[in-house]
Amino acid sequence: MDRNTKNEKANLERSLKPAGSYLDSLADFADLLGTIRQAENAAKELLNETSPEPKKAAPSVITREQFRKTDVSNDQPPIQDRELTPHNGPSPGNSSSETECTSGKEPEEVEVDPQKRVEELLEKLDALIGLENIKQSVKSLINYVKIRKLRTENELPNPPLSLHMVFTGNPGTGKTTVARILSELYRAIGVLSKGQLVEVDRSGLVAGFVGQTALKTSEVVKGALGGILFIDEAYSLAPDVGSGNDFGREAIEALLKLMEDHRDDLIVIVAGYRGPMERFITSNPGLESRFNRYFMFEDYNGGELFDIFSSMCVNSEYVLTDEATDFAREFFDELYTARDENFGNARHVRNFFENIVSVHSDRVSDLETHTREDLTMVLREDLEKAVFM
Length: 389
Known about the structure:
The chain has 389 residues and is an alpha/beta fold. Among the domains are: 114-297, Rossmann fold, CATH 3.40.50.300; 302-387, Helicase, Ruva Protein, domain 3, CATH 1.10.8.60. The protein is 52% helix and 7% strand. It has 16 helices and seven strands. It has helices at residues 3-15, 26-50, 64-69, 114-126, 132-153, 175-188, 202-205, 212-224, 247-261, 274-282, 285-290, 302-315, 322-337, 346-365, 372-376, 380-387; strands spanning 165-169, 197-200, 228-232, 267-272, 293-297, 319-320, 377-378. The strands form two sheets. A five-stranded parallel β-sheet has the order 2-3-4-1-5. A two-stranded parallel ribbon has the order 6-7. It is extended, with a radius of gyration of 40 Å.
């Protein structure tokens, strides 16, 4: 055995001493450290030989196609951080489908033929009960606007146009419904960019401190840009003479200025009882100059009230017996004849219908068994009891 071999054997024996054994000298300690370093180097070489190729770092920028293929279903932001898509249909019958966040497809805007949309909205207007004078006025106004656009396209002059309107009539005569259809019609023919209907009254425009009303009115108008601002009971903004300072005047002044600033993409409709609305318009020269189109909503007569009631029954699948039908016709004729300034028109009909449903429910719930006919049939006695509720 040569000298080098003897030294390596001696070093190995020293490195294999039991744990806690005493190292005889500093030389022994140095030999032990050398053995440990050799073992570490050998281990590193073995790992380098057996480990696979290192993975490349993911690129900081990925393509659009790669992004679409990425599963993000478990990486959604909190609800409060997500962008909400507002419902943009002013009509209650309209609905919009939701887009799946993880579908990998961008939402596509559905193109609607403007002419077809106009026809659909005019059919919706024609389907309203009564309001024959309003229907004709709306159609004439739409035709007028369409011809103005054609004249502009043919480089022909047009007289100044104001589309701001005054709706007068009792409650429940369909003013808000017609305003909603108008907003969609103007959107379809390109007069308005969005076509939404924003409804407010005095409380939505007037604040309680000096200077705040103008800001509040400005915010409301901002939300109505591109559509129609419908102000119900607008006469409440103009107090009677001698009533002192009132913030309603501040709202009127702010509104007039905003109507002028946004005359190309804002229509204002003021509505209310006929007498008070006439006084409201004449209370300010600016109002008279801007509101020059008047729509008079007449009360529904007895036959029209019955038709409205019948449509409510059909939509909710209630069937009146012959005796109940006769009673309803007589009731609505008498209701129209005895009407006063507080007559509610369609609102009165709806209240009566809801009372009938309540009476019918009480009667049917006492039956031991319930057939489909029991659940749908309305008797004369149901209407008689509903009258006194």
